[in-house]
Each structure stands twice: as C-alpha cells, then as structure tokens.
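Entry for the shared binder. Reason: the reviewer on the internal report wants the predicted structure included alongside the sequence.
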Amino acid sequence: MIAKNLIVLVALAVVAFVGAYSWFSKTTTASAQGINASTKMNDKLEFYIMPPSDTDQYNAIKKRFEDNAAWNAEHSSETPRRTDWHHGELNFDFSDQEFKFMDGLFMSEVTGDGVSFNIPKLMQYDNVAYIDKTQAFEKATPNDNYMSFDLYIRSKNNYSIALMNDSSIEPVDLNNSLSGQHDYSGDADEAKMKPGAIGAVRMSILNCEADNNRELLWIPAPNVWYNGLTDHLYTGLTANGSGDYSFSGKGSAYYTGSDIALRADESTTDHSFYSANNASRTTWHNGGSQKVKASTAGNYRLGSGSSDDVIVVTLPHQDGDYRYGHIRVNLWIEGEDAEARLRLVNGKFNMSLYFDIKEAVESGS
C-alpha cells in the first residue's frame, strides 16, 4: 500500500561551494541536530539559507548583519545568532534561527514537476492505493510535506555557478543491500529492502533569477525497482540489463478500473507525476527537454565528468561591491514512483550538493 503521509526519510544534506560543504540533517521526528564537517574555505563565494519566497530576501539577510544590535535585541532568546554570511563551512544547526522554517518537516508523498507540488486524494483497491481524479488535489506545503529552501549566493565577481557532477543523493545502506543485483521479498528481507526508498526520491533546482526556471530534475536511483504486484525489490538495474534488472519497462503498480497491473510503458529513469488539474498523468524521460537527469551509473552521483555539471544561476544583481543571485532547492518523495510504498517506509539517504564556479560572466551579459 502506498505510504500516504508515512514515507519519512532522514535527509542529511550537504551544500558545497568550490570545495566547501555544509551538512544538515532531519530526523523522523520534528527535532534535529547538526552534523559538523570541516573543509577548506573559499573567499570567492558567500551564501545564506532562507525559506522559499517569491520576493527578493537579500536585504533581509543584510539587515541581520548590518544592524546586529537591533537584530540581537529582537532575537535575544536565539542561540547561536548569525553574525555574517557563510564562508566555506556551514553547520545546518536547527536551533539556529536561520533554519527554524524547517522545524515542521515531515516528508510525505507528494507529486509534482519540481516547481509545484500537490497531494492527491487516494482510494484503495486490494493492496494498492490509487488517485481519485474526481476530487481536487491539496496543495503541498513546503517544509511540511517536502523540503524547500532558497540559497542566496554573492561574490565580488559575476560567475556562472554549477551543481557539480560529483554531487550525490545516496541511501544510508549499512548492510550494502543495494550493492549489486539482488531480489528481495517479504518480511524476512524487509530490512534489506528499506534503503530502496531512495528510488522515490527526487530533487530539483530552480533558477529564481529566471522566473523559477527548472534547471534540473534529478532521479538519483533508477538502479532499484519495487514490483508492487509481487512485493519484490530488485537492485542493480542497468541500461543493458535483462528481465527484472533492466531500467526499461519498470513502472509502478496501478488500478486499471478492474484489477491491478504494472505500467509497462515506463522506466525507472522516467519521472511521472500528476499536475494540479488532476486530469492526467505525465511522464518525462531522462535527458529530455524537461531537464530530467537520471543517475544511470548506479553510484547515485549526478554524473561522471565535467560534461554532467549543471549551471544553475549567474549573479545578475548589484549591491555595492557585490553581485548576488539565488536558487531554490526542492527535495521530495514522488508518490507516483514505484518505490513510494509502505514496505519501504523509513528508508534513509544522504544528499550532498557541490556547487562550483564555472566561469566569469562578461559585464552587461
């Protein structure tokens, strides 16, 4: 049965700039603790995390640092208090005011295109929950049903900034159960099946400086597939695999109107979702014009080389000596994916995002 409002993954996320990275964690309860990581600092980029907003929050960030006395008086009960933009190393400490907006995060199934997200009404047939298209969808709430944050970046030069190919979203797989080809099933294998929840994880990056244009929709784990008809989890899928170990023809279980079947016209490298009008199910393919990227190498990385780096933003705004811009990062559990199932509830994963300077942008361009 689809785990409506139950699929809860521990998200350990890393945000990195030019070799500098930052961790944040979220537990299966509403509490969290930061995980420290040391790294080399870089003075070319400064960054700050804000809740998602349709307005430019740069001045609000500046006010926190330029008027520290007023800010500290207003937020005297908060410890620790921020005193500057982040340089190189950041601890996503949820006791810090900067991250308070994520306090309510309890990731549940949503469906979306990486820009907007909805929660459909579900019906039940046998062991499969399916979408009731006669009822209106509920709009998903950021940092309640899915994770979303705006990442502000500034520098004294205008750069093109890219998400690097060695970024990863990988399962916490203590027993290496997803390594290699395996066929797991039933209660006896349930612990080994849990890491397979990574297959339903999605991440998108929106360029907030270009009308929230989606620069990337990432499927990190097409190498796993859950057969909802037989309760089997298959690992080690590849493009040239055969039978249950191939990307192709591996869709989710659905209700046909009279029975349960598998979507044979979909692959684990596809992203399928319902839009807000709840009229039809859309499928986007890896490498298509919708900027879907599936990690087909099976190592949960964005890519294998510099050709897989994804430029996500330049810094178009001027403020004194600084150029600045921002992106939005969304992380969610796609309820239309085959691995969004009750059997895999409480799977865990790590997300490590590395951003680097690609090139300087000519003045006025």
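Summary line for the report: The chain has a mean pLDDT of 81.
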